Amino acid sequence: MNKDEKNCRAVLSRNIKHYRNRIGLSQLHLALELGISTTFLSDIETGKKWVSAQTLSQLAKALKIEVYELFKPEKTIRDDVSAAVARYLDDVDDAFIKSIEEAVRPAVKKSITKMRRYYTDTSKINQKK
Question: What is the pTM of this model?
Fold first, then answer.
């Protein structure tokens, strides 16, 4: 696993836990809602496993957020992590879009566009500083 993927997994893991705790869902309840095992959810939250685009979409819906919010870094995360996540999203964009069902495709495409814009804007702002 390369550095960009590790950073992306770390951001995703932290955000899933954050948003799950924010709405008071246990791992068990979230796993049941998603139709996955608690072990798999735990592995996602610890960065051991990755998720499909469809599962990302379901996660965002269950957590009452947009998909791109699962990849927003904390303000304290260094700029290079944001840039790494943006590069990683560019690399996996096509893979996500091709791997999901037609019904989910527009929502995920919109979220990926928002994520790319967020990370690009963040990188530009931080480069000016």
Answer: 0.58
| Tens of pLDDT, residues 20-71 | 988 999 999 999 999 999 999 999 999 899 899 999 999 999 999 999 889 8
Evaluated on CA atoms 90, 95, 96, 102, the torsion sign reads: positive
Task: Tally Cβ neighbours within 10 Å of residue 56.
Answer: 24
Alpha carbons 6 and 8: distance in angstroms, whole number: 5
Q: Please check whether residue 68 is in contact with residue 117, taking contact to mean a CB–CB distance below 8 angstroms.
A: no
CA dihedral over 52, 119, 17, 88, signed as positive or negative: positive
Residues 31 and 41: their CA atoms lie apart, in Å, by 6
* Measured distance CA(34)–CA(37) in Å, rounded: 9
